[in-house]
Every structure is written in C-alpha cells, then in structure tokens.
Design goal:
Layout: H1 2-21, H2 26-51, H3 68-83, H4 98-112, H5 116-127, H6 133-163, H7 177-202, H8 208-232, H9 244-255, H10 261-264, H11 272-289, H12 299-306, H13 310-321, H14 325-342, H15 351-357, H16 363-374, H17 378-386
Helix pairs in contact: 1-2, 1-8, 2-3, 2-8, 3-6, 6-7, 6-9, 7-8, 11-13, 12-13, 14-16
Length: 387
C-alpha cells in the first residue's frame, strides 16, 4: 500500500504541473491543479503516517485536515467554468472559503501552535480511538459540506447536458460524462470517510486505519480519473463564440428547459414573420447545402450562415419544428444514411463508414440516434430492406 501512496503522490504532483502548463481553460485547470496538489500532499502525509516517518516531521501532523473544506468548492467552480465560457470568479466567491478559513483558524490556535510532543501525543491518542468530540463533529461537517457542493455540481452538469442539445449536433466529448463520474467518485470517497467515522464506534473489531487504507486506494484511483478526464477534455466552447449578453440569455433558456414552450419563449422579441423567414432559410441550408454533413456542426455555425442570433434559431427549431437542435440535425443525418444505404454508389462502404460520412462521429452515437428515429438498429434496417 505504501508504494501505491507514493505512486499517487507522484501522479498528483505531475498532473498539477501539467495542468498549470496547459494554455486552454487556464482558470479551470489552475483550480484542478490546486485540488490535485492538495490531494498529493494529503497522500504524502498518509505515507508518512503509514511508515512511521511522521515521527521525524511532527509539525506536519494534521496540516491537511482543512483541505476537505476546499475539494467541493474547487470541483464546483471547475464545473462552472467548463460549462459557461463567461463565468468569472469574483470577490464574493471568497465566501465559499469561510468554512475552510474558520476551521483553519480554530486548529491554528488549538493545535498547530502546540509543540511537537503535543502533536505526537495527539496522534497516538487518535490511533487509540481517543478522538475528541470537536474533531468528530468537524469531520461530519466536512462530509455534509462536500455532499452539498457535489450535489450542486451534478445539478450543474445535468443542466449543461440538457442545454447542449440546443447547441451542438453531437454530444461526444462535450457532455461532461467524465466530470459526472469524477463527482460521483468523490461522493463515494466522502461516503467511505463517513463510514470510517462511524464504524469503529459501532464495531470494535474494525479500526479506522483499515477504512483509511481503503479510502487512500480510492483517492489514488480518483487522481488517475482526473488525469484521464482533464487531459482528454477539450475546450467545450471552442466553436461557441457568443457575446456575454447572449450567453446569459441562453443560460436562462437552459435552466427553464423543463418549462412549457410558451413559458420558455414568453419574453422573446422574435416575430412570426421573422420566424418563418428563418425557418425557410434553415430548411434550405439543410436540404440544398447539406450542412449536417459537418460532424462538428453547432447552432452557432448555422446562425452565422443565416445571419441571425443563435437564440432565435434555437427558438425556431423548438417551436416550428418541434425538436431540439441535436435531434433536428441528426434526423437529417439518419435520412442521409438511409438514402446512401440504398444507393449502389456507396456499396463499397460499411454502414459505419457511411454514417461517418453523413456527420456522425462515433459508432455508439450513430446506433443510438438511428434506433431512436427508426426503431431499428442499422443492421436490422439493412436486413428488412434487403428482404
């Protein structure tokens, strides 16, 4: 297990440096780099505890106990920046650091300023289950605070995932599924920590140290999950260049996505005549120029071609066609795939090859969309067509 901890420390530090060197998503990557550095430092302390080397560095004891108050806010703000290109951290956001600051001040005067022998005695007492009541209460509060932030992070990702269907023609790599998995993983770690707090008091044969080993293992895996997601995650809005005013309007639409269409566009200034004009131009682009063949097509691309605001184009697609942007574009792609499957000129291509030429960017995405529209898998459709 000690080797696993060292690997986790090395990986966390390496990723921190790597993220700080990335040029895109600078603020988001800095937040994640800080989080990784704090995790790496905590794993290093756990290594020193496990090997007994902490005896040589008594003043390091407990230095990481305030970090859990930061993990939730850091991940939440990281998600905020990823889903909104115009989100900026402001001075009022420092209010989220109040629990961290309050706890740090408390332990500064009640623990950190004590001598080394006091800290070593305290560590010995903790290992003998002589845990002060205030520490237990603080640990419970850390977990509750983390659950609060992680819940709102998941809610934020959910809003984003609904919103991308009105912006993008593909969900691949911009749906933040990896960040959702990351958030659930952190929830799991805190849940294990909560068990670690309660279980030793309920079952004497189980020690908090055994729970700590399990937690450390999951934290190391968590670091690798961050590595996979953060390095792979592109700038979501690289092709979504909008004004800040328009972005705020779009956020309002996204957040009310479960409301009725009348409520959603009740404040819109788009006239019926202009709506019909946009619809005619849109259908012309789709049928004559086949813009849907671009597998990275966004609603911003289409609105630029039509010379209208993207929010108006989204409204037209929602109201006049009765679909979101994602389904609207991909229905055209499915129809194009079906046409080419019947065309002798495309017999040399596989079904997937045709799908990729028609604007789909992955097999799974194509299969899901195709079955949603036709009720059949591509293979079943071909079998029915040939019979």
């Amino acid at each position: 297990m000690n080797n696993v901890l060292i690997i986790g420390v090395s990986q966390a530090i390496f990723l921190s440096v790597f993220l700080l060197s990335k040029k895109e998503n600078k603020i988001a990557n800095r937040l994640l780099a800080v989080m990784l550095f704090l995790i790496g430092f905590s794993l290093l302390l756990n290594y020193l505890y496990s090997t007994g080397q902490i005896q040589n560095f008594p003043h390091l004891i407990g230095l990481d106990t305030a970090f859990p108050f930061l993990y939730g806010p850091l991940l939440y703000f990281y998600a905020r920046i990823l889903v909104s290109p115009f989100f900026r951290l402001r001075s009022k956001d420092l209010l989220h650091l109040i629990p961290f600051a309050g706890y740090f001040i408390y332990v500064l005067f009640n623990f950190y300023m004590e001598d080394s022998q006091y800290k070593l005695d305290f560590l010995t007492a903790m290992r003998n289950f002589e845990v002060p009541t205030d520490i237990v209460l603080f640990n419970i509060f850390k977990t509750i605070q983390a659950f609060f932030y992680l819940f709102f992070t998941l809610k934020l990702i959910g809003i984003h995932q609904k919103g991308i269907e009105n912006r993008f023609s593909t969900k691949y790599r911009n749906n933040l599924n990896w960040l959702k998995m990351l958030t659930y993983s952190l929830l799991g770690i805190y849940f294990i920590k909560l068990i670690g707090i309660a279980l030793p008091f309920l079952i004497e044969s189980i020690s908090s140290g055994e729970i700590e080993v399990l937690t450390d293992l999951f934290i190391v895996l968590f670091v690798y999950l961050i590595a996979f997601g953060a390095i792979r995650q592109p700038s979501i809005f690289a092709r979504w260049e909008v004004s800040e005013k328009e972005e705020k309007n779009d956020e309002i639409v996204e957040q009310s996505s479960d409301s009725s269409e009348i409520q959603k566009y009740s404040a819109s200034t788009l006239s019926e005549g202009k709506s019909q004009e946009i619809l005619v131009g849109l259908l012309q682009l789709m049928t004559e120029e086949k813009v849907y063949l671009d597998n990275a097509l966004t609603i911003k691309d289409l609105s630029d071609r039509l010379g209208v605001k993207s929010k108006y184009l989204s409204q037209v697609i929602n109201e006049q066609v009765g679909k979101n942007f994602f389904n609207f574009v991909n229905d055209y792609r499915v129809d194009e795939v079906k046409r080419r499957l019947r065309d002798e000129n495309y017999k040399h291509l596989s079904i997937l090859g045709i799908a990729l030429e028609c604007g789909f960017n992955s097999k799974s995405s194509f299969n899901n969309v195709f079955k949603r529209k036709t009720g059949l898998t591509p293979t079943q459709y071909m079998s029915n067509s040939s019979s």
